[in-house]
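ok, trying the design again with the full structure, not the truncated one.
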């Protein structure tokens, strides 16, 4: 008998992780994990799933929305959150 699909909404990542931990604590062998959202969101959840021992084959991720990535500069210690290419300029490093 299949279990009914349960859809929940969470107010914070902390609440979501707590529920995820609760589910993983009593999960059966063969569990599959699917996450859909921003890149930062799905990778955060992927790391939680890997922490519970799920393999890469048991995890499916789908990034939706902006394809921008957060890039940290080790020189000026700033973060650029709108990077969509592999060549970027950090304003703090521009010589005027």
């Amino acid at each position: 008998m299949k279990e009914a699909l349960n859809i929940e909404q969470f107010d914070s990542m902390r609440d979501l992780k707590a529920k995820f931990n609760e589910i993983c604590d009593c999960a059966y062998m063969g569990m599959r994990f699917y996450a859909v959202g921003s890149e930062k969101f799905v990778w955060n959840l992927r790391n939680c799933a890997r922490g519970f021992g799920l393999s890469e084959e048991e995890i499916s991720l789908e990034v939706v929305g902006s394809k921008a990535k957060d890039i940290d500069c080790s020189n000026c210690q700033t973060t650029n959150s709108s990077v969509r290419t592999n060549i970027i300029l950090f304003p703090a490093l521009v010589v005027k």
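Keeping the full-length input from now on. The radius of gyration is 18 Å.
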